[in-house]
Specification:
The complex is a heterodimer of chains A (409) and B (359). Chain A has 409 residues and is α/β, with parallel strands linked by helices. Chain A is built from 16 helices and 18 strands. In chain A, the strands form four sheets. A seven-stranded mixed β-sheet of chain A has the order 2-1-6-5-4-7-8, sandwiched between helices. Chain A has a seven-stranded mixed β-sheet with strand order 11-12-13-10-9-14-15, sandwiched between helices. In chain A, strands 3-18 form a two-stranded antiparallel sheet. In chain A, α5 links the parallel β4 and β5. In chain A, α2 runs antiparallel to α3 and α2 packs across α6. Chain B is an alpha/beta fold and 359 residues long. Classes of the chains: A alpha/beta (409), B alpha/beta (359). The interface between A and B is large, with 50 and 36 residues.
């Protein structure tokens, strides 16, 4: 079967040959976190920082930042701590990554952890992939030219649509399959069989929210309030509010009257921040948003709606007990006033992923997580860190997921 | 002015200032009517236009996003009064619009359409070619907009000839027999733009068939023809060149406002009939756009009583070219449609968001 390869070189290749090569262990494979891997990834990070085209995309710069040498070194230390006197972490083998079409960079994080752990990797790139993906492939290829053979043989990216036979051929030899994407994509890929020993990590549709303590917010100086707006902007708008971890619901904890004044100050600041950053939505995005708002008014307990320019629409919810988890992105926020964190607990659902917070401390949030006891929410992070990736994502510890523990007595 | 009186006036005869007042009164009444009888409409207006009581200009009237007719049952009559339910002709798996008609609204649609069509066709019913297959109308379980459009138009013709078989093949023999029978006399051709082009013109282009006595009325959108790089003027030029057919009228209309169609005048622009109007809105601010500036089309119509479709924000882009100053002597606004708002994909973690929001 012929497929279009993008990495390590753009050319048409035979899929069986690729898979044979990826599984060939005769030349020796890389052990987890060996210097060659660290060196290569640090080079890749530097190349992304330097690349004129990549510089234009903040998400590529964020990726580069996360792969910088000091961060990789820290990850290595965390990895070392996984060893015990009787267990040895080893790579799982061949990891098949299926990223979604329209996410530019997030799949690279799970790829990176997998590479670090010494796995070999094959990635499916969608024909609809965005320009950021093209840049990643180009820069990666440039770095691979000077890399060790073991590194060159480590990662293959191929481009194809929804051809089941390609997915099936790769799945048949995979040791781990990683599926990013909407629920429909996850279900579609999942219907393709994997070997009995193969494990699967799925990252389906998620919903994220943000909580602010009204009294703490109202006590802020003007500069600090503007900083809150800037952080919220980053969380909300970076990927057109379509990242799983971008907040779609903002909850103020405090008295209704105080929350209402806090909200009007905050939305005003956020609106200013949007203007400053120059976020713009196109006509179809704005039409979608108007239709979404109208549907929300009919289906949810929306009591009022504010349309602050085309960039920001806010719909006030009377209660959030049966909140639908639909979303439209492009600057649409549900808002609700709650008395305290405890009253939120009953509204949390399995689909909820990231909770960003302001005005609470870590211990309070840990207590909240304990109260939920696993019913939902996988990440609780301070405002501004909604999109900051680390090894813990969607409830997985990726570093652990990418290795096997060999028990030696 | 009562709707019945308005119907009696010659089409396109109202100077805009006069028409605006008639529409404003009528649409304010409709707004109040639907707020009283359609809880969904009332809820939308009360949240989206909390201070709204009565419009002082047409632009102040509340409007509904056209997509709502796909996701919600919007109806201003009790169930037992529903006489007919229209659905848009979406492809499989797509959500379709649902429009609920009572007898009165259906009658208003028919009457209004007749006043528009006689303007194009004259008062006598002409022999008629339908560029459709007979099968379309036989399946009454799927009473979609296409079938409704065909049925509505059939009343303006006689001795109907269905030009296509169920495989969308042109019945050439039948066509020749039709042309022979009505040799030299005017006849009426109706169909959907894409089907006319694909199944009639493409088949006839290389034969010498004389359609010069025909009056062609077609609508349904240009999306497919745009993909084939056929514009409205190209469409007309090729028809005239190959078949002699010169009287061609495109129209614009929505299943959400059946009966209220905008037919092309001799200058190629679309005209607003007496009981309907269009507003172009800036796609980002929703403010009315100045004349000559493209934006999102909002369509207003006095016809819908049984469902809140009197003021609908479409997903089409359009541009208003002028008011009352048409070379053909018609009054009112004239405009053109630029096609659907182009869809840009938002990024994100999910592959399916587009269908979540647009479905």
């Amino acid at each position: 079967m012929k497929v279009q390869q993008l990495v390590p070189r753009a050319e048409e290749v035979d899929l069986e040959e690729i898979l044979t090569r990826l599984r060939d262990i005769s030349a020796g494979t890389l052990a987890p976190f060996v210097p060659e891997i660290l060196e290569f990834c640090a080079n890749f990070s530097r190349a992304l920082f330097r690349d004129a085209e990549a510089k234009r995309f903040p998400e590529l710069q964020a990726l580069a930042f996360w792969m910088r040498k000091s961060e990789l070194e820290r990850l290595r230390q965390e990895f070392d701590r996984l060893k015990t006197s009787r267990t040895l972490p080893v790579p799982r083998g061949l990891v098949f990554h299926v990223p979604p079409a329209n996410v530019d960079t997030i799949f690279m994080y799970s790829w990176l952890v997998s590479v670090m752990a010494g796995n070999r990797n094959i990635l499916r790139i969608s024909p609809r992939a965005a320009v950021q993906t093209t840049i990643i492939c180009r820069v990666l290829n440039e770095c691979l030219e000077d890399a060790d053979k073991a590194m060159r043989d480590n990662t293959v990216m191929i481009r194809y649509g929804h051809e089941q036979e390609i997915t099936a051929a790769i799945s048949a030899v995979a040791d781990v399959r990683v599926i990013w994407g909407g629920d429909a994509s996850v279900n579609a890929i999942r219907s393709v069989r994997i070997p009995p020993h193969c494990k699967e990590l799925a990252f389906p549709d998620r919903y994220s929210l943000s909580v602010m303590r009204t009294s703490k917010y109202l006590g802020l100086e003007e500069a600090a309030r503007r900083e809150v707006a800037a952080q919220f902007y980053n969380d909300m708008y970076w990927f057109d509010q379509m990242a799983c971890s971008s907040p779609r619901l903002l909850i103020w904890c405090g008295g209704a009257e105080e929350s209402s004044s806090a909200s009007s100050i905050f939305l005003h600041d956020l609106h200013d921040e949007i203007q400053r950053r120059g976020y713009a939505l196109d006509a179809s995005g704005n039409m979608n948003k108007f239709t979404f708002l109208s549907r929300a008014i009919l289906d949810q307990p929306v009591v009022s709606a504010q349309q602050l320019d085309h960039q920001l629409t806010v719909a006030q919810l009377e209660n959030i007990r049966n909140l639908g988890r639909d979303y439209c992105g492009g600057g649409f926020l549900f808002q609700h006033y709650a008395e305290g964190l405890e009253s939120l607990a009953e509204c949390v659902a399995r689909k909820d992923q990231t909770l960003t917070y302001f005005g609470f401390d870590q211990a309070e949030m840990a207590a909240f997580a304990q109260l939920l006891n696993g019913r939902g929410i996988d990440r609780i992070v301070p405002l501004g860190k909604a999109l900051t990736f680390n090894r813990y994502w969607d409830g997985y510890d990726l570093l652990v997921e990418m290795i096997r523990h060999v028990y030696v007595e | 002015m009562k709707f019945a009186e308005l119907l009696k006036l010659p089409q396109y005869s109202l100077p805009y200032a006069e028409k605006e007042q008639i529409l404003l009164d009528g649409l304010n009444d409709l707004d109040a009517h639907h707020r009283l009888h359609c809880p969904e409409y009332n809820r939308l207006v009360s949240v989206l236009w909390p201070d709204f009581k009565k419009a002082r200009t047409l632009a102040e009237l509340p409007y509904l996003a056209v997509g709502l007719f796909k996701s919600h049952r919007l109806c201003s009559i009790p169930k037992e009064k529903i006489f007919k339910t229209l659905t848009s002709s979406g492809t499989t798996g797509q959500q379709v619009s649902q429009i609920f008609l009572d007898v009165e609204t259906a009658q208003r649609q028919t009457a209004a359409l007749s006043r528009i069509m006689t303007h194009v066709l004259g008062l006598n019913r002409l022999p008629m070619i339908l560029v459709e297959s007979r099968a379309l109308l036989q399946d009454r379980t799927r009473f979609n907009a296409r079938a409704a459009g065909v049925l509505g138009m059939m009343t303006f013709g006689r001795e109907h000839f269905y030009a296509l078989d169920e495989n969308m093949e042109l019945d050439e023999k039948g066509l020749h027999a039709f042309l022979e029978k009505f040799d030299g006399k005017p006849f009426f051709i109706f169909g959907f733009t894409f089907m006319i082009w694909q199944y009639l013109f493409q088949r006839l282009a290389e034969r010498s068939v004389d359609l010069s006595q025909g009056i062609l009325v077609h609508g349904g959108g240009w999306k497919k023809l745009q993909e084939m790089a056929v514009s409205n003027s190209e469409f007309k030029r090729r028809f005239r060149e190959k078949t002699g057919l010169a009287r061609i009228y495109n129209f614009y209309g929505l299943v959400e406002q059946v009966g209220s169609i905008y037919v092309e005048g001799e200058n190629g622009y679309l005209y607003t009939p007496n009981y309907a109007d269009v507003i172009v809105r800036d796609p980002l601010t929703w403010q009315p756009a100045p004349m000559g500036t493209p934006g999102v089309l909002q369509v207003l119509s006095l016809l819908p009583l049984s469902y809140p479709g009197h003021s609908v924000l479409t997903e089409d882009l359009g541009i208003i070219h002028g008011i009352d100053d048409s070379p053909g002597g018609r009054y009112g606004k004239y405009f053109s449609v630029l096609g659907r708002i182009p869809k840009a994909e938002l990024r994100g973690c999910s592959d399916v968001h587009a269908s979540q929001v647009s479905g």
